[in-house]
Design brief:
alpha/beta, single chain, 11 helices, 7-stranded mixed β-sheet, about 350 residues, 2 domains, 6-stranded parallel β-sheet, Rossmann fold
């Protein structure tokens, strides 16, 4: 086996992507090496590209939507073995012993919270190493390119929905039909919710219905809160957009005890306290999930026939692929096909 690999790295905050050769890393104790087959490009990769995450060490290889094959295991690793298909997502590891970890709040670890592609090199390359606890099993039914975006966009929407408190038949709305929202609509419909898609423009209705939405609200042509109230109010609105005003506009469409779950980073959000008080409504953020959440997402997606719509690029065109993602014109996720399958 060649001892060299190609990776696309960011040399410094705000620097250009560089395609370089590096030595193939060896996994240390408790870590696993993955031969990367596909890696999604996520908007959160801007945190590496632009140096927006405190303490990043450069050069750094981004990428936290990884699907590949276990290639080597470090000492003490169980039960991973060479040849298994594995995914690596945003949550790269945690200490396991701080108070938050002991309560199962792994996302809030205060000692050793690791983020793939930020704390250690990610999937914009032919190989990567990751803590064994960061790996998720990949079903045979999912191709690597199809599965990669589910390791972040997928698990974020799926996990938010299944932890939202909604039950079968409840009105659940998905705000935005983009990289997150096109998956959110599919998951919500497959989970048995009375699914409402909310987006700007009448032209998106047919597509929303094709994804499985039972209702469509054009937020450009009508008041989305009023339209939700005609349906009895939403038990949950999953906000996938990056527009705080659009989020605030749907708050009045929540049913009593309804919740606006924010998974799109939108900056400061203006909330009418009267709406919260009078209906016991709430606004809540949701973290993507750990490796078992990613594994559940992959299994459900294969079982329920949920698919990410992807634009695919080879590794050497990573810079172009990143710009395509940043343009907002991609339909709907951008994936690096590193194995060339």
């Amino acid at each position: 086996m060649s001892k060299k690999m190609r990776v696309v790295q960011v040399p410094r905050a705000g620097g250009p992507f560089e395609l370089v050769e590096r030595d193939i890393p060896e996994p240390e104790r408790g870590w696993v090496r993955v031969k990367v087959e596909a890696c999604g490009i996520c908007h959160s990769d801007t945190l590496v590209k632009e140096g927006l995450w405190p303490g990043i060490q450069y050069p750094r290889v981004p990428g936290h939507e990884v699907i590949g094959i276990v290639d080597a295991v470090g000492e003490g690793v169980k039960p991973w073995k060479n040849g298994q298909r594995a995914g690596v997502g945003w949550h790269g590891g945690n200490c396991g012993y701080c108070d938050h970890c002991r309560r199962g709040e792994f996302f809030a670890c205060t000692v050793a919270l690791l983020t793939t592609g930020i704390s250690f090199d990610g999937g914009y390359g032919e190989y990567m190493v990751a803590p064994a606890e960061a790996l998720a099993l990949v079903p045979d039914e999912l191709s690597s390119v199809d599965g990669a975006p589910l390791m972040c966009a997928g698990v974020t929407t799926f996990n938010a929905l299944r932890n939202s408190g909604a039950t079968g038949g409840d009105v659940v709305a998905v705000l935005g039909i983009g990289g997150l929202g096109h998956l959110g609509v599919q998951y919500a419909a497959k989970m048995g919710f009375n699914t409402v898609a909310i987006a700007r423009g009448k032209d998106k209705e047919a597509f929303a219905k094709k994804l499985g939405a039972h209702h469509y609200i054009d937020s450009k042509g009508s008041d989305p809160a009023a339209e939700l109230n005609k349906l009895g109010g939403a038990k949950v609105v999953i906000a996938t957009v990056t527009n705080a005003e659009a989020m605030a506009a749907v708050l009045g469409g929540l049913a009593p005890n309804g919740v606006l779950m924010v998974i799109g980073a939108a900056g400061p959000l203006s909330v009418d306290a009267i709406l919260l008080i009078t209906g016991q409504r709430s606004v809540k953020g949701w973290y993507s999930g750990t490796s078992i959440d990613s594994q559940d997402t992959l299994k459900f997606s294969a079982l329920a026939d949920v698919h990410s719509m992807n634009e695919v690029f080879p590794l050497e065109r990573a810079a172009e692929a990143y710009e395509r993602m940043m343009s907002g014109k991609a339909r709907f996720r951008v994936v690096l096909d590193i194995a060339g399958k």
